[in-house]
Amino acid sequence: MEKEEELEQNRLSYWGNTPEEEYYSTQGIKSTKSFFTSPRGLTLFTRSWQPLTAPPRAAVCMVHGYGTDISWNFQSTPIFLAQNGFSCFALDMQGHGLSQGLRAFVPSVDDVVEDCVSFFDSVVKSDAELGSVPRFLFGESMGGAICTLIHLRNLEGFDGAILIAPMCKISDKVRPGWPLPEILCFFARFAPTLPIVPTADLLEKSVRSPEKKAIARMNPMRYNGKPRLGTVSELLRVTDYMSSRLCDVRIPFIVLHGSADVVTDPEVSRELYDKAQSQDKTIKIYDGMMHSLLFGEADGNVEIVRRDILSWLNDRC
């Protein structure tokens, strides 16, 4: 029993101990990994997941959430999409996963937006097949906020967006009351990297399935510390800005949220849906589901969300 537990703790990937290339082959896809140098000289880790034989139907440019990375349970979604004909690309943002930077420190979300845009543009330019197919954004939680900012920066750059529990505004229900935000922002000027912001365990609040919770905890790249002052201050700034720009969103999008999410607020997704100028917009609120819709729920629930995303993509390709 102890030996089995030791093997489980030392698993290579979220799927177990099958080597990556062998696993991708069994899933009927191909995958690459490399490093990308951003315009500001930052070394960022990247991955792709692509159909094995047929030409891609579209490019899906993906952004992960705070404290996570693209090499563990995040992979389950791009693998699924690649199996259905979509070429997927993602990078570990600054301070996350295998990318350069202090762990979980995001001093400027605007810089992260520039990193993502530069990488996604380089992907399309390097592959002639991708130049003639639609391009979609995909973001989870903080990644959803970054995708929205990418759109607001370049209104014509993408053909649609898939936003999973996006952090487009900090709800009044979860935003710390005055004067805590002001105090945090003040001290962030002097010690931005200090990891002292009190918060609940986000994994406990995000993942419902006990089995998947255990798998998520095994991620060697997961950030387990308290949020850093500078990161929290920056997220407060950006979400305040975004809350004033929801009415400027024009991109076709689907926003998906669990009704039991206490990390990001489903009411904010409803507000995005109501205020956006997009002519093509869809909202899905899943009764009783939590924050991690595409991994943390029971397999049946994950399948429901995946199929809704796939159906939305199919209708626009």
TrEMBL record:
InterPro entries: AB_hydrolase_fold (IPR029058), Hydrolase_4 (IPR022742), MAG_DAG_Lipase (IPR051044). This is Serine aminopeptidase S33 domain-containing protein. The lineage of its organism: Eukaryota, Viridiplantae, Streptophyta, Embryophyta, Tracheophyta. It holds the Pfam family Hydrolase_4. It comes from Rhododendron simsii. It comes from the Eukaryota. Residues 55-295 form the Serine aminopeptidase S33 domain.
